Amino acid sequence: MHINFRSIYNKTLDFWNLIITYSPDVVIGMESWLNGEMSNAEVFRGDYTTFTIDRHTRSGGVSVCVKNYIT
């Protein structure tokens, strides 16, 4: 799933609802607008391993979330 968050900070609940509905294996998010003030655990679900690059300017930020599978 590819999403342009355009600030996930205020849309965390909507993001979780998308994840619950579609259960994607990988989520790539652009324009997260995160800057390190929030931890990944506050935004992203624990059943995904999340890699983020926070923004250093007014816009930007990238997140890649990969679903954890228990074998």
Elements, N to C (H/E): EHEHEE
Rg over CA atoms, rounded to whole Å, is 12 Å
Question: What is the percentage of strand-forming residues?
Answer: 25-35%
Stretches where pLDDT falls below 50 for ≥5 residues?
Answer: none
Number of self-contained structural domains: 1
DSSP helix fraction: 10-25%
Mean pLDDT: 87
Strand order of the largest sheet: 1-2-4-3
Terminal-residue CA separation: 23 Å
Question: Which class do the helix and strand fractions yield?
Answer: alpha+beta
Please, how many helices? Answer: 2
| Total strands | 4
Structure, described:
The protein has 71 residues and is α+β, with helices and mostly antiparallel strands. It has one domain (2-67). Helices cover 21% and strands 28% of the residues. The chain is built from 2 helices and 4 strands; from the N terminus they run E-H-E-H-E-E. It has helices spanning 12-22, 40-43, and strands spanning 2-4, 26-30, 48-53, 62-67. The protein has a 4-stranded mixed beta sheet, with no helix packed on it. A hairpin with an 8-residue loop joins strand 3 and strand 4. It is globular and about 35 Å long.
Q: Can you give me a brief rundown of this structure?
A:
Helices cover 21% and strands 28% of the residues.
List the helices and strands and how they pair.
Blueprint: E1 2-4, H1 12-22, E2 26-30, H2 40-43, E3 48-53, E4 62-67
Parallel strand pairs: 1-2
Antiparallel strand pairs: 2-4, 3-4
List the keywords.
71 residues, 21% helix, four-stranded mixed β-sheet, alpha+beta
